[in-house]
Amino acid sequence: MNDRENLDVLLVNPDDRNPVSNIPWGILSVGSYLANSCNRKVRLIDASIDGEDKLIADLSDLAKQTPLIGLSIMSRYTPFLKRAADTIKAANPACKVIVGGPHAVLCPEQTAAYANIDFVAYGEGEFTLNALIDQIAKPDPDYSCVPGLIFRQADGSLQRTSIAPAAPFYDVNYDLLDPKVLSTFGNYIQVLSGRGCSYKCTFCFNAVRGEKWRPRPAEEMVHEIEALVARFNPKVVYFRDENFFQGKQRTREFIRLYREKGFTFRWRANCRADYLNDSYINPDFLKELAEINCEAMKFGLESGSERVLEAIKKKLRVSKVKRAISWLSAEPRIRKYYSFLIGLPGETTADYKATMRLVGWAIRADPNAKIIGPQYYRLYPGGELYDQVKRDWNYQAPQSLEEWCRQYADPENDDGWDKGVEYPWVPEDGRWLAKNASLLIDSYRRIYASETKVAWSPLKRLVLRLIQISLDARFRFGVYGGLVEFKLIGLLTRIYGSLKNLRRTQTGGCLPLH
Hints:
The chain is α/β, with parallel strands linked by helices. Helix content is about 40%, strand content about 15%. Strand 6 and strand 7 form a beta hairpin.
């Protein structure tokens, strides 16, 4: 949009580092609603495109031309939020700043208390932003009638209005994205076909918000996809929903429509392991999904400990996880992604080792499956888990925006997981393992899979086989001290160079692979 001075709102996303895989769904959704349904003039800018410094420099100019700037923020981006808000107000004190996204929802009053932030949208932002734009345009605005808003009154106190209703489904306006991102859509595009999740896992942001699954009807979803296929003809579509397969009937309807419309794109989606059962996604159903080009399924498995799965209300058993992995491993046309957590409140070192055993079992069942994590747990305010740590460990998350900024200015937290924070519930004898489990698993998976993929020399094959046997024993028996395997990997890397893809720079006190 060239007439930037006539914008109703400028929406800003921090640097997620990969603008293609990390589509800024928060601001893209709200911006699409405002542009498509309300005829508002909207612009999106994403620091992922040209970097944070360039975006901050642009904000100094844009703040003088725009009455309202909205920022969508996760907690790890609070340093960016503070820097952006300070820049906007220094350039134009009259420009209003509103903050939404997960951090604003979890810490609404804290966020609104910062001097250079005018408003917080503490729920879904569509109706909130639309009503706020109307009020800002008035000579005597009344912000108390804007739903889903927290704002500072004349006396400095904060007022919270009633929560905003959920907006109806609408097509996404992808033209709001940067042309550099649009140019990639012939290869890969993300689609949102539903919101929320009805499960109540205690570690999850959705549970804190009290969200429920809201599916878009299959016919509406496919209508939008038809338009995207006609325009971009994407090779791959990733359904960005929290749980694409939650509705059995909608899944079957999507399969029917995919065939009826003659679609050929490959697609990816998130699923739950317990959906793989005799009455839903059984081996025959997996074959059917593969036949209509389902190329990847992603699963949040979290833990290998029955006790932990029950405590976090995952509603999942290890036996169901193993059944799912076994069935999936028999369908090579579908790639599998399994994610895990570690360092949860109440977990013991024995629980950590149970997770490692399950991950090791999954790797041996399907060496080509992608293991995500175990990601070191990140605590945020709200919900049962936070109440538990306050009660049992006398722990509190940062109490102001400035404190959050200091926490995430630590380079150890640069990946968004609080490895630089010493959580008191992590047992001393399991701290190293909790922080470095992902390094162990990544090494194990890569080496375990390498023998079948590469024609190694006899000496290299022998050394790798010894490393594999040693790591096998570690994962089977839970012994993680004296990691001589990493020294051997480093030796092979220096001698041959061909294992350089095993090198990783890790944080949290772990051993680099060199």
